[in-house]
User: Fold these one by one.
Assistant:
Number 1:
Amino acid sequence: MNKLVESADAAVADVKDGATIMVGGFGLCGNPENLILALHRKGVRDLVLVSNNCGTTELGLGVLLKARQIRKIVASYVGENKEFERQFLSGELEVELVPQGTLAERIRAGGAGIGGFYTATGVGTQVAEGKETRLLSGREYLLELPLKADFAFLKAWKADTWGNLVYRKTTRNFQPMMAAAAAVTVAEAEEVVEPGALDPDRIHTPSIYVRRVVRGERYEKWIERRTIRPATA
């Protein structure tokens, strides 16, 4: 039951070229920083990433993008990364833009074994192109299909060695759904404790969904765009 591995590099050792990976985080908040860097060091390529966005030009998942390790990304926001823009416009990067709520529900559906769901979000836009539609109660809906992955890379605030995870505030974001939708879930945590040390009522992701845990280190906790009030006289 001890799922603690010795390093982030060991935690990603079985990731192969072409793997589909869900990565937690919202912007640069809650990124699994150690696992991203380990994946960069491993040098795997042609990755398909499912995440809220692709970080910034120099930080977060942008590290993998800049190294040309990503073939396709499924995301809901891409506005902070100039290299993303360049690769997309030049045809080097495949992009599937998904409305944020739809992205979360597609991931949840993948973990829950749901074959698809109907949503009104995106009707009449490019999001609807090529998708089945249905009229329900006088309103048009799109059929959206679930998302699944080979791996999920998550960032927890606390974990125990069994793999139970607790996220801190906003960093929870898409991560509980991703844990259920991947064949192998790897979590890094700021603090790793012994079994029984976490309050069972406060566990956000049960250990049954987690294959490996690694103790994170040297967190930067980046800020995408620092905004401060002007100095007053």
Number 2:
Amino acid sequence: MKENVEYIKVFADYESDDMPVVYLYEVDLEDERLALRAIEIFADRKVKCIEDFYRDVIEILSIPSVAELNSGEWGGGFFALAIREEEFEEIWNSDSYMGRLSAE
């Protein structure tokens, strides 16, 4: 297990087929909670792995903690939980996702 790294899964409300419904983040706890890698999962269970999460962004933002995400201070429509590194890696190395697509 990597030290000083947190793994987060975020379930988002369905908006459209081209928007992810589940996000997974590998968060560097020693570098301002920046994402090391991210995964987007779509309603059709396809997986998109992102190695350079900040490549096309104008402003780099830290990934909020599970508690912050669930408090509503970042908006509604999603639910976050901590996951194990093994779950992140299994999905990272897969073309499809067989887990839950919603928090319910």
Number 3:
Amino acid sequence: MPPAADHADNWVSPLVRASAAWAWRLLLLLAAAYVLLEVLRLFGVVVVPVALALILTALALPAVDFLDSHGAARGGAVAFVLVFGLAVFGGILAFVVNQFIEGAPQLVEQVTRSIEGTRDWLINGPAELSRDQLNKAVDTFTEALRTHQAQLTSGALSTAGTIVEILAGAFLLLFALIFFLLGGRSIWHFVTRVVPPEHRARVHEAGAAGFHSLAGYARATSLVAFVDAVAIGSGLAIMGIPLALPLASLIFLGAFIPVVGALVTGFLAVIVALLAKGVIYALITFGVIVAVMQLEAHVLQPLVMGRAVSIHPLAVVLGLTAGGVLAGIIGALLAVPAIAFFNSFVRVLAADDPGARTQELDNEDGPLVDAGSDEPQPSPA
């Protein structure tokens, strides 16, 4: 270093020099993370179906391996599990839609009575509004709909385009799921070839740990979502709330977004109860949802999720928030599974003794690899 530069550098505190060194490195890391997120967002049509396929693989792989180990051909086992899963999902969906169609007229009738009761209360109650004022308010609302008709139409066209993207993504998801179940371990083995040989075994162990946590998260979340849907749906059915089964199905789907998913979808049940049964039933419905959420937070999550994935609740909330800001509902859905995977992946990758770290995870969460196999099974499929 030139003497002048050395002399000038002596005027800077070592703390400032260290802070500056950290600052430009952190800026580079943030820039790299930003570029990575933008690339993922740009290829979201591909990334999201593949990520969902990995989660579904974590759920279906034990069944495929069980059939494979009992003499069934691998391809036949995959076909059976997929056809069975699609049949169950399609049957449930058809049943829910049928229930919705049958229950909609009753809901419309009850909502109509509620509207008429509200109209009478506004006219004869403390508000003492005239019929002309109510009719004027209705006409204003109708005129607003007509004024924004073009925007509503463009929104419908945008929704149609979104449906096309969803169908394309569903096809890619199914295609990826089939190949993950057929030969995901071989795919992971091929991917790790890009890693230098001296680090390849460590990456294998990290991949096994990450996928094991992802599988545990998927199974635990499915169980928690099922319990939420059954508990809230039973409460709605006991109170005679219309569309109890479709609402329970929405709660089941929403529960896959931890912490807030079931609460947000349950709010729809509160609205239906308010329109169909009145304020008292709406408050009771809200109380049932809050009670189930408390049961989930203090009993189900620690017993079920805590055994499968060790993630601090603050990390879950921050991950959900960041995922929702970056990618909306899909981001919130995939944030926690991604945290579960990379939490175990990085812990094993950064461990001083990967074998000891793997054994530690094994003792906590179950086997990461098949001890009876000559070939390690670290793949995410």
